[in-house]
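Give me structure tokens for this 198-residue protein.
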Amino acid sequence: MSVYRKNGNRIHAYFDQSRNDQFDLKGKNFVKNIFSKLGFLTIDYDKDADGNHVWQNTDLLIKSPKGTVYRIEPEIKRERIFGYTKDGVDIPLRKEKYAYASIRTKFFIINENLREFIIVDDVKIKMAVDACGEEYEGYGSLSNSKNYVLPEHGCRRVRKLCRKNDSQRHYDDFVRIPLSQAKHYKLNSLGLWQLCLS
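Here you go.
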């Protein structure tokens, strides 16, 4: 079964501004809550002083009690889509810029039920981009690029058909990180976060 098929029907990913607005604050608050409990300082980083969105920045900055700073990019996924992360975590290639910043970046992929999340380190994004360059793995009716070879570590670039709205479709590139190359946490019956082993 392909990551983008369910019961034989294709699931198209597409950017939905209203969904983004709905989930963006939820994801940021989720990450803030986790890190504040660990004694970290969390700072909103995606808006300027006038409240305008700064696309070059991740959503959050966090600072550890020892002074280490990280950039955090949280993303909420609907529960039915989050289930497909077992086949790999897809991060839009446009977010690659965060992986090459001077401050380390962590990508948080969060189940909308807030009981499960995955952390992808910026190093894994770099591995995929460096290994594949302009070559990509195709999905659905899209074939792999001519010289594509799956990297041994499994971190790779994928291209898939996405829906921009109900009538427009376009191809978009993602970085796919195998779950074995990420950290996957679930809330256990005691209400504690438990690392899941692949």
